[in-house]
Design brief:
mainly alpha; two-stranded antiparallel sheet; 278 residues
Amino acid sequence: MTFRLRLRDWLLANDPAFSRLRQASRITATVVISVALLIAFHFIATPLPPAAYGLAITLSIEGGLAVRDWTASEQLVTRILAVVTGVAMVTLASALEGYRHVSDLVFLVVIFVAVYGRAFGQRWFAIGMFAFMSYFTGAYLRPSLDQLPALVLGAGISAAIAHLVRTVLLPDDRYRDLLRAIASVQQRVDEILHGIAAAARRHCGRPVLMAQPLRPCPLLIASPGVRMTVRRSQAEMHKSVPSRLAGLDFSQMRRNNNGFHRSQASTKLAGLPNLVAF
């Protein structure tokens, strides 16, 4: 039981809403199901070329990573456009196989357009990534033009399975993800409060923080579009934290299945000075 709880806490700390775990599971399930269906078609109906499997695996991965539209209908439209673009790129790469220098120049153009597509929204970035990976697959596996129907089959199956896995098998639930993220942050706060309480017990009435004041320590945090300056005033913390910890009743602090019980601690620490300045 303890190991399971620790494993869950570790996952929540590194992946609060389990969104990365769900994305990895979606991509893996899409690849496995798509390849299994192609293998079944290979033995039941007609043999398929290796390019069909390669294209299906590649587009299954891109379908789980690049398609990020908000609604299922928008995702379906993106996947349809991406499959059409991918098949066109494979056909173009196959047609230019006899002209290697021209094919390389076209590949550079495809790379530029795929990356520049980000300027037109998430959908066109996804389509650009499908185009890039499809052209690369076609140039590497070198399918012939008579194998085009098999490539269409592989791309179509991968897109259909990716959409079903995304919307039915492992769908997104943003409300649930938000609750899990909040629970993860709450648990980190619980651990901090538990550490503060343990430090107060160890010091047995002595000041918890350093008695000698230090200069404010600025910490710059940069993120896309956000820059915060965090300033810690040791003097204010020295005055406020020990006095609030002095009134804590440590006998009421305990561990249970839901985490650290901190109702009294949070009340005592609620009035700490605001140390974050934007």
